[in-house]
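Mods, move this if it's the wrong board.
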Amino acid sequence: MKSLDVCLLGGTGFVGRHLVYRLTSAGHRCRILTRHPQRHRQLAGVGCTVIGADIFDVASLRNHLDGCDAAVNLVGILNESGSRQGFRRMHVELVDTLVAACQAVGVPRLLHMSALNADAAVGASQYLRSKGEGENRAHTRGQPDIAVTSFRPSVIFGRDDSFVNRFAALLRLPGPLPLACPDARFAPVYVEDVAQAFATALTARATAGEHYELCGPQVYTLEQLVRYIAACLGRRKLILRLPDWGSRLQARVLEWVPGKPFTRDNYLSMRLPSVCRDDGLARLGISATPLDAVVPQFLQHATPRGRLDALRRAR
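Not the wrong board. Structure tokens:
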């Protein structure tokens, strides 16, 4: 297989780190564009070039994309933080800038991270509408020069995720856990499966123009997921199921908390089941990894007993 030069936007994030390791292991060369290259020196150790760059500047993007065989866009935010970190800027305007830069220097391939339920016309939330518009623009504005493939994952889990680990942290706090949207449905997908989907599509010409929904093999409600995490941690926890009005109230309050742990836009996104209608992993020849195969191991290492056992094994 030919080694490719791949430029990644968002390559220092959760999915990006896993994808970079997979691509470099396959012999590909990666350029990772980031605002803070000094924070990600460990990625240079796996054969990547980590470059400080303004990804919203067309001239800068052209310079760093020049000579690349493919670009990967993994940039996404769940919540807005001012005009410079708004949904439209991050999910739509950036796509326009990236596509224009790819066309200017002749990059023929683009892999784009979208989201399950992304829909520019009737998305339930600003997040989903902006993700849908960005995905549409990646496919339409790239024609006919760029072969575009997009991916729509459900919630992604893995050892260093921000989903399972966030609820694990909440479950360790004293007192009951008031849970908004307890009946929201998800089909959690393993980060390594998502990375494999990108890596497979990179060199498979038949994936050009396709949209792949990525889900794990099982569907859970949010309450079931939280109770499962609690069981893995060995925690007995009173979980308070909030009614719809309580979920909306919690969102109104928490969106003013630093870090915005839950917002009204998150609430609107969660009203739609994050469940695949089409098995994109199977279409790519990938067997979906169940939650049970991964989560208990990394959560048990996070408990005091798990850390003690690890120290004993290391002696």
